[in-house]
Amino acid sequence: MKKMAVSALALLLSCLLLAPAAGAAGAYPEKEHLPVDFADMDYTGYDPSVLRAALAALEGLAVSPAVRMGDAKARTQVETLYRQILSELDDLTTQSALIGIRYDANGADQAAAEESAALSQLSVQLFDQCYQTLALLADTPCRDLLERDGGPDVVEELHTYQAVTDREAALFEEEERLVQAYDQAMAQPAQVTVDGRVWTAETLENDETLDDEAWWEISDLLEREQNRAAGEIFLQLVRVRTEIARESGYQSYADYAYQLLYDRDYTLEEIRSVRQAAKDYWVPLEAALAGAVSERELRALDVRTRASGDAILDALEPFMGHIDPELGETFAFMRQYHLYDIAPSDSKLPTGYTVSLPSYGSAFIFDCPYGDYQDYATLIHEFGHFNEAFHSVEHDLWASFHIDVGEIHSQGLEVLFAAYADELFGPEGGRAFYWSTISNMVSSVLEGCMYDEFQEAVYRESDLTLEEVNRLFKDISEEYGYVYGEDEEESFFWVEIPHNFQSPMYYISYATSALSALDLWLKSLEDWDGAVDIYLDLAAMGMRRPYRETVEAAGLRDIFRERTMRQLAEGIQDRLEAEGRAPGGGDAAALLLWAGAGGGVILISAVIAMAAVLRRRRRAAAMAQAAETPWEIP
Fold first, then answer.
1. Which of 49, 281, 418, 457 is least surrounded by Cβ atoms within 10 Å, i.e. has the fewest?
2. Alpha-carbon distance 140 to 433, whole Å?
3. Whole-number Cα distances in Å, 27 to 24, 328, 542
């Protein structure tokens, strides 16, 4: 599931300096994992006095003749202070994670929200001070301490590092405030009044008295109201982020995010060719996959996935060890020390992610579950992130988080796990889960490209009105296969995607990584052990190498070649046909409408386009029925 959202501010802290490429892939590095239960990880806040004292002492030493001359005693003092600084930053990052988890577990906790925001701003200041102070060591014999952890290019990067200005700090603070405002807006259900009755999405789903026309009218009003509430916040965020980009010398926040925030080794110009290939080859593929699963298989999956929390963990744990014994050991550690919160709760914010806890040498998975098969997929996805964070020895001070690579860790594990779907959910439910996994990956390609194109356009024209943004999204989404009614001039649902607010220009990483994950899946069909080895190599590499370099090192194909995009789509189509699930008969008949101009494939059947909305309406009835239905396969 595409629920992992990383704060743009947190990423900026980690990308103030670019990390060098890591060494060759192989076994995980040695790392201490403290055996501490999450319940015993108390949030204590963070007192910066120790860190600031260490920075002040190091600043004085760095300019002293003893350090400049390479005195052994002075060097020992420098190294002691440097290690203390790293330890303090671990504590700061861990405390920030703990208060963030507390806030996400209870979105109504205003004190936690304020504390989380305050700690984020303090982090900006302290990381900035650390880089400024450590830059003083760059021209001393102690620079090898920095190169050991930060790599051979760190000295040059410290020389060119520019401190955060007061204006930038204020903009970051405003950005964080607006992101929290969005969280609060989405945590409160939209409501409208029609004929004296107040409606929300929940009351609409549970109502059985409305005719179709009235139901759609109220649904449309609710969608518009949600769009209005969140959309006004979005416009403010666009303006603030455009100012942030310009403070760093960029005209567009899209360029700023690609280059400075995410440190990608591909450009916006290069990704446009991937987007076009997605429209040409992957839109019809998604339509074909929409008919790959029968209603009977979906019912079987629905019955088999009525579980939550530890029951899901119980079901998944044996198969982690089947893929790799060490993966199974990491999963067992996560369970033993309760490094997760995946239980349903009305107080949770609607989000899911994995966050590092460096003081404990570990990580934590948070998820607000859906209550269906997607919860299994989300946990597999997030555990891919957990495994990488659990084994990573890179310190936040020097780390560069190449998200495109990180998402292969998660999505790659999802496609490998599909091999065990039948054992998990039975033959019928398993087939549904299997093809839903592949379908979700294909959707990730299209959604990633679509939202990236949308966000680039918004930040290129940063003074758009909300109506213009809605029209822009409609126009772009139609190119990716979305279908609207003849009288619909705007599209409103984009506000439901938190990445548009929390981490702009992130979403393309779901597309690039999904393409590589699907390449891995196709390899697994021919050579399972080889594919697993590639995945384990990727996990051991971590996130220090950028995407294209990592993919090449792992032996996966280059998605920036149009031929690769076409071949991957054809490979999935061939698999569909081999299992008799391609269009041409049964549930998948008549799904594609081909356009003659330019060889492009444009529209999907309106039946498919309406499916997601109709499923929302049926959800309440299905859940009510589930309470009375035995848990055996129909």
1. 49
2. 58
3. 10, 15, 11
Distance (Å, rounded) from C-alpha 364 to C-alpha 357? 7
C-alpha span between 584 and 576 (Å, rounded): 11
175 with 244: CB under 8 angstroms? Answer: yes
Give the number of C-alpha atoms closer than 13 A to the C-alpha of residue 54, restricted to the C-beta side: 21
Dihedral, CA of residue 286, residue 291, residue 292 and residue 297, to nearest 10: 130
Which residues share a beta bridge with 367? 352
The band of 583, judged by pLDDT with boundaries at 50, 70 and 90, is low
The answer to whether 431 touches 297, Cβ cutoff 8 Å, is yes
Question: Checking DSSP bridges between strand 592-594 and strand 197-199, what pairing results, if any?
Answer: unpaired
Q: Are 206 and 620 in contact (CB under 8 A)?
A: yes
pTM here is 0.83
Query: Which tokens belong to 96?
Result: 């920030």
Contact indicator for 274, 518 with CB cutoff of 8 Å:
no
Model confidence pLDDT, tens digit, residues 320-353: 999 999 999 999 999 999 999 999 998 998 888 9
CA 625 to CA 605: how far, in whole Å?
Answer: 29
pLDDT tens per residue, range 164-218: 889 998 999 999 999 989 988 988 888 999 988 899 988 988 888 888 889 989 9
Q: Are 257 and 221 in contact (CB under 8 A)?
A: no
Q: Are 398 and 19 in contact (CB under 8 A)?
A: yes
* Residue 222 DSSP class: H
Q: What angle do helix axes 325-336 and 310-323 make, rounded to 10 degrees?
A: 160
